[in-house]
Design goal:
The chain is an alpha+beta fold. It is about 25% helix and about 25% strand. The chain has two domains: about 55 residues, no CATH class; about 120 residues, Hypothetical protein (Archaeosine Trna-guanine Transglycosylase, Chain: A, domain 4, Roll), CATH 2.30.130.30. The chain starts with 18 loop residues before the first helix and ends in a 7-residue tail after the last helix.
């Protein structure tokens, strides 16, 4: 909960919080809904908050928007097998490219061939590489990306600041990513 400032502390019966907390609590309640309509509405509310509250109008379009995802091993999998499967229940803005922030740098960008919102990765098992064994987590809703070959960026985009550049996902344009020398340029 956010601490009340002096000017709003005069309203003791009002619960003050932020949109991130609302979304987090709603995610926790989704499993209690046991109702397809309520679960759908909760997902749509999360998308609305993500697109309206958490993000400023970035001015990018689907054609030039890059999703930058913070992942430990996704880059290696994407390079070898041309796919990315995000954590369950993650939502993304429309984009034509995806890049992975790993080891304080971005090295590759991938053109997105297709995106599948699936209830379980079992639905796209024919696309998954042979090594991939489904687990219980994979039987939850996922966004699955089919990717083209990796495009090595002209410069490795390094993150020189303290702390991570991205924890969930961020967005930039393909033009900015190709010109960037460090994450401050994004």
């Amino acid at each position: 909960m956010i601490k009340k400032t002096a000017d709003i502390a005069v309203y003791p019966d009002v619960y003050w919080t932020n949109w991130q907390e609302v979304v987090t609590r709603l995610k926790n309640y989704k499993s209690d809904f046991n109702n397809e309509v309520m679960s759908f509405l909760a997902n749509q509310f999360e998308i609305l908050i993500d697109n309206v509250v958490f993000s400023k109008n970035d001015g990018y379009t689907k054609n030039n928007r890059v999703i930058i995802v913070g992942e430990h091993f996704a880059e290696d999998v994407a390079c070898k097998y041309h796919f990315y499967s995000c954590q369950p229940n993650r939502k993304f803005r429309e984009a034509s490219y995806i890049a992975f922030y790993h080891q304080k740098r971005i090295k590759y960008v991938f053109k997105i061939k297709s995106i599948h919102d699936v209830e379980s990765l079992e639905e796209v098992q024919n696309i998954l590489p042979n090594y991939y064994v489904l687990t219980d987590v994979d039987k939850e809703p996922h966004t699955f990306f089919e990717l083209e070959d990796a495009d090595v960026l002209p410069h490795i985009v390094e993150h020189k600041q303290f702390g991570p550049f991205v924890q969930r996902q961020r967005y930039t344009s393909i033009e900015k990513l190709r010109k960037a020398a460090c994450t401050d340029d994004l």
